[in-house]
Amino acid sequence: MPELPTGAQAAYQLIHDELETDGRPSMNLASFVHTWMEPEADKLIMESINKNLADNDEYPATMRIHARCVSIIGNLWKSKGAVGTATIGSSEAVMLGGLAMKKRWQAKRKAEGKDTSNPNIIMGANAQVALEKFARYFDVECRLIPVSKESHHCLDIKKAAEAVDENTIGVYVILGSTYTGHFEDVEGMSNLLDKIQEEKGWDVPIHVDAASGGFVAPFAFPDLKWSFELPRVRSINSSGHKFGLAYAGVGWILWRGEEFLPKELVFTLTYLGAEEQTYTLNFSRPSCFMIAQYYNFIRLGRSGYTSVIQNSLENARILSFALEDTGYFDLISDTHRSKGVFGYENRTSSTEGIKEFNPALPVVAFKLTDKFMKENPHVKQASITALLRSRNWIIPNYALPPNEDNIEILRVVVRESFSQDLIDILITDIIWATETLAASDSGFDVEILTKRTKDPIAAAHSLEHSAGTPYGRQC
């Protein structure tokens, strides 16, 4: 910190100029996080940026808006009696969902006079790192179920059912894998857990991690059974700042009814001027992004959200077909394939004749074909990423989850701001990067562009390592 103050304009310019070296949000195709809102939403954000969402009594209008958001989302997720709260994001929300399952399991075991020292939770190896953090931070055994091509690179529900025992507090089922965009089979998992309860008496709940899919499925796949219409689903989280179309800083956690929110998680406070209840991990948090979420609900309505999400999915399919048509890439994602058809061996040239698509996120995950790699062994996918970065595109390259570590994929998240014009430019640049590398038969050396930094400050802020690949598990 400097000893003396700096003029406001000089301080602004100093920071502004440094931030100009960041990547362009509109060309950051690595992130699920929404990067654009209308000027009217920006204005509301600035008008409420100084309001603390924790101050219930001081800001009653803000709390009414919060309650409306919970009601709207509960309706989207097919529950009339849902209770819930805004969070900083899905990472906080998924922790709360896990804690509720643990507390309910402990209470039931104690009432039966049984041991409560060895709780476990089940999830696919493709789980986002926040799910594993819950297990580690709150002393729950994490039972990671291996994923494979046969399970569409996400949770194998039969293997998950085999891992259940009397100490299982719940199963995390992901509606929209961060790796490939696939939806896990919530209804199928629910049916298997119903059978387990019939046979063994173990009432194992489901928490749906719908960080991305929670604002995709209701509008693009309204007939898909994944939410509170399934009694086995006790809680759901989602990120308003992903396909909820708000800026980063707002997530949601809902329980199907008040009875599924353990009293141990609810605190009653009086020191802010009135009696109020809280059950979030964070206390002070901004209200402005929750208000931005409400703006979208009012501004877009159901038809507006449906249009935005359907358009993103359509653009993802256009990009998928274009990549396949190059002959250089296999598509690991199945967003563009007919419902029930999976795997890059099943190529189609267009959407013509497809009446219904696989439920999935607008995500395009792809890799170089085996044929291309055999003919061009010197070409690395990480080099494609590096060359694309020289044209301002940010596209990650990373390995699939454990037991698929030998497969690396590139991934594009198609958000609202990614237009068909940008798709044309991106395809041109991907072909340019791929053919440039292929033509460099001596081996185009981009190691200096792709290797991780050794700088200790940057390393301290790098993506952390976990059971899967760091990037794929955290974005």
UniProtKB/TrEMBL annotation:
This is Glutamate decarboxylase. Gene3D superfamilies: 3.90.1150.160, 4.10.280.50, Type I PLP-dependent aspartate aminotransferase-like (Major domain) (3.40.640.10). It catalyses: L-glutamate + H(+) = 4-aminobutanoate + CO2. It comes from the Eukaryota. One of its GO terms (biological process) is L-glutamate catabolic process. GO terms for molecular function: glutamate decarboxylase activity; pyridoxal phosphate binding. Keywords: Decarboxylase, Lyase, Pyridoxal phosphate. Belongs to the group II decarboxylase family. InterPro entries: Glutamate_decarboxylase, PyrdxlP-dep_de-COase, PyrdxlP-dep_Trfase, PyrdxlP-dep_Trfase_major. It comes from Entomortierella chlamydospora. The modification N6-(pyridoxal phosphate)lysine is found at K242. The keyword Chloroplast does not apply. The lineage of its organism: Eukaryota, Fungi, Fungi incertae sedis, Mucoromycota, Mortierellomycotina. Its EC number is 4.1.1.15. Its cofactor is pyridoxal 5'-phosphate. GO terms for cellular component: cytosol.
